[in-house]
Amino acid sequence: MVLGCSLALPLVADEEGTDLGRYLIRRVLQFIPVFFGATFLIFALVFLMPGDPIRALSGDKPLAPEVVVALQERYHLDEPFYKQYAIYITNVFQGDFGSDFRGYPVRDLMLDRLPVTIRLALLAFLFEVVIGLTAGVVAGVRKGKFFDSLVLVSTLVVIAIPIFVLGFIGQIVFGVKLGWFPISGYREGWYSLMLPALVLASLSLAYVARLSRTSLVENLRADYVRTARAKGLSTSRVIGIHTLRNSLIPVVTYLAVDLGALMGGAIITETIFNLPGLGRAVFDAARAQEGAVVIGIATFLVIVYMIANLLVDVLYGVLDPRIRYE
Amino acid sequence: MSDTTPSDQPEGMSPDPSGEEPILYADTVDEYLPRDVVTAAGDESDQRERFRQSPGLDTELVDMTRTASLWGDAWRQLRRRPVFIISAVMILILVIISLVPGLFATHDPRDCNLIDSLLLPSSEHWFGTDLQGCDYYSRTLYGTRVSISIGIIVVFFITIIAVTGGSIAGYYGGVTDSIIGRITDIWFVIPTILGGIVILSVTRSRNIGTVSLVLIVLGWATLLRLVRSSVLAAKANDYVDAARVMGASNARIIIRHILPNAIAPVIIVSAIYIGVVIAAEAALSFLGVGLQLPAISWGLMIATAQQRIITAPYLLIFPGAFLSVTVFSFILMGDALRDALDPKLR
């Protein structure tokens, strides 16, 4: 859910620090069971989907029993499901994600859909950084002033409004009333993604603004800031050079994990705005009970999310030397 | 709670209301210093004696009992805060509506007349009517029930799982911690909406129970991590060592010493989580994999309203506003609790 922001920091400061390399290796080793566990879980969930894929393949005309048996063997449907999982995961490592009911490879489907989702996520990410960070920093510098209160209240409102309601408000206001953006659908280029990206970014944008504000306010109370001020440095230098660098550490780590979450969070946005991305594809596939597509995309999204998490742990230690790798 | 005015308390006990960071984590939760004794300046056994001897002071002793604890401090802070009062009143109203929607509704939400289809808001139908001619105001009110009950059920069970698992993992450490940690990692990387779509799209009959179950299964991991880290921090305190040296059992140490000092962040996040869960249910119902008709749910209403977004935007606005206000109330409550319970997190 959305609360991953301040909670996903498993590192503990420790006097006996070991080097980054050993920590990385340990983290990657930990990564392996989680990867297999999560993909197995998805596989098991989808395996429980009712319905016979071979009958779905044949349509109205029943297939000859020999053909059914041959197809079952070809797709390993006669094997117990842990064996199916083993076969599937081996294929995934060779770049083969299986194929959908029409025989179209899931890998190609994903490659078709990926550019839209990546563009959407990157654009949303850009909004987060530019708007969220600016609002947060300005609010932090002017703590207690009008702009600060404005940011606090407006971010709270944005956090409270569910993303699909926000999507509709965006469609009505910017699409129908003002006519600035297309209401839905995807055209080549970036422009038709602006509104969806803003909606997708809204929640994290609010978190980034609040996080950077809190962090900045906290750091402005630190001793080194007082020292810098006492030395007679200008306010812009104290904030811009000394404080900002330290207070952006938690924000940067949040942004890194969020880039992974944005890819997965695109399901609702892509559905509302009818964008042909990965989220829309996995949603359609789940409703049509296309197991192979669901597993393929879900696995991919989970991997992206896991890598983002790993990145955060490493980034956190690199940016903040006070944190030692246990 | 009693009506203790600040003047009733001895000096040094009441946290300075203007202070930036009142110290709420008193490290005096020692077994042998009963919690009800105010450890203000001076010899406390003296003080206790004085209280015992003076007649008519018993009630005040009870008052101080509460003010000395974390929750007492938090309560006195909270009830002065407008944010807390506003969110508490809003949540109270929503809970009352969800318990007895009939009290406020003007119509039977299922008594629909097609002749009244898509009426604009009027004195007869405050929020207008939907395509089937149902009174939209009454339906919106009845939708509160689904959202509030799913939010509370899910968070209740998530909290139980997280507190049990998290305190075991954090307290015992070692292999136990590793096992629980890896299981948590696995569930943690599965996004809620994605997992919800996968599981619920194969569930034939979906009701409050099944949707809640799925949200519980997909939602506990984050909170368990939080409990674990909170328990780890509390475990490092000297009073835990002291209790162990004095021969307290593990269960007693966890329940009596660690949890009371580790629970504050959990309460805060749980309050926010109720809002998050309500939004997740609405999102799943909106996508068509949550609750099914004839259930009355804001997510379903918004999904239907989507088709008439231009001709009848009020169909979207009313359930959307109720949903947002509900989520907002719980998030606001979490914020207020955070300010009172854990100023470090601010």
List the helices and strands and how they pair.
The complex is a heterodimer of chains A (326) and B (346).
Chain A: H1 4-7, H2 20-47, H3 53-58, H4 65-74, H5 81-93, H6 106-141, H7 146-160, H8 163-177, H9 194-220, H10 223-230, H11 235-247, H12 249-272, H13 278-287, H14 291-319
Helix pairs in contact in A: 2-5, 2-14, 6-7, 6-9, 6-12, 6-14, 7-9, 8-9, 9-11, 9-12, 10-11, 12-13, 12-14, 13-14
Chain B: H1 44-53, H2 58-68, H3 70-78, H4 82-99, H5 136-172, H6 174-188, H7 192-200, H8 208-235, H9 238-245, H10 250-287, H11 298-305, H12 314-341
Structure description:
The complex is a heterodimer of chains A (326) and B (346). Chain A is mostly helical. Chain A is 73% helix and 0% strand. Chain A contains 14 helices and no strands. Chain A has helices spanning 4-7, 20-47, 53-58, 65-74, 81-93, 106-141, 146-160, 163-177, 194-220, 223-230, 235-247, 249-272, 278-287, 291-319. In chain A, helix 2 packs antiparallel against helix 14 and helix 13 packs antiparallel against helix 14 (291-319). Chain A is flat. With 346 residues, chain B is an all-alpha fold. Chain B contains 12 helices and no strands. Chain B has helices at 44-53, 58-68, 70-78, 82-99, 136-172, 174-188, 192-200, 208-235, 238-245, 250-287, 298-305, 314-341. In chain B, helix 5 (136-172) packs parallel to helix 12. The two termini of chain B are 26 Å apart. Residues 1-67 of chain B have low confidence and may be disordered. The chains are: A mainly alpha (326), B mainly alpha (346). Chains A and B meet through helix 1, helix 2, helix 7, helix 8 and helix 12 of A and helix 6, helix 7, helix 8, helix 10 and helix 12 of B.
